[in-house]
Specification:
It is a single chain. By secondary structure, the protein is of the alpha/beta class. The protein has helices spanning 15-26, 78-83, 91-100, 119-128, 133-153, 165-184; strands spanning 2-9, 33-35, 48-50, 63-69, 72-77, 86-88, 108-116, 158-161. 43% of the residues lie in helices and 23% in strands. A 4-stranded parallel beta sheet has the order 6-1-7-8, with helices on one face. Strands 3-2-5-4 form a 4-stranded mixed beta sheet. The termini are close together. 31% of the residues are buried.
Length: 185
């Protein structure tokens, strides 16, 4: 059965950086989800497909998961998830994925990996990528409801602390290889 590694974490925890390094190392593929948010300064094309809100309707029947944070929308298509190994997603999007996905038609096991960092590290990363203090605080507050519930209910299979990127990459690779070995036995 195909496994998709659903990487969940608050903004600024380094999810994309971590997943990109693991994908490169293991020859795996990340789902490049769609978003209506503006591209950040110095942000490349590797994390999202940037679209306008009016373009979303053309994807409605093909969505594998959808979420909205504030006024910004994120989603991935069924085709993207089937072709990918990692999907960076928030808790609401993960719930939506579990509700939308046709597990009978497309058997798949989501493996949920929670990425976390200390709050000061998180804020430093947000400011380092060009976000203002106000925007960073606003985003962090907007995530509190969904992440608070996610953390309390511990709806993850694994947790990776991304304070040290090299160690976090090693930890995530071990999880992935362990899960893939389970699949073979």
């Amino acid at each position: 059965m195909k496994k998709v590694f659903c990487v969940v974490g608050r903004t600024g925890t380094g999810k994309d950086s971590l997943v990109d390094l693991v994908c490169s190392s293991l020859g795996m593929k990340k789902v490049k989800s769609y978003t209506t948010r503006e591209r950040r300064p110095r942000e490349g094309d590797d994390s999202h497909v940037f679209i306008k809100p009016v373009e979303i309707d053309q994807f409605k029947g093909r969505m594998a998961a959808y979420t909205k944070i504030g006024e910004v929308e994120y989603f991935a298509t069924v085709e993207q998830v089937l072709e990918g190994d990692f999907y960076v997603i928030d808790p609401n999007g993960l719930d939506d994925f579990r509700e939308r996905w046709d597990f009978d038609k497309f058997p798949m096991k989501p493996v949920v990996i929670y990425v976390t960092v200390p709050k000061m590290t998180q804020m430093s990363r947000l400011l380092g990528r060009g976000d203002s203090i106000e925007k960073s605080n606003s985003r962090m507050l907007a995530e509190n409801d969904q992440f608070g519930e996610f953390e309390v209910k511990q709806r993850m299979n694994y947790t990776v602390v991304n304070s040290d990127l090299e160690q976090a990459v090693s930890d995530l690779k071990k999880i992935v290889l362990q899960e893939l070995l389970k699949e073979e036995t």
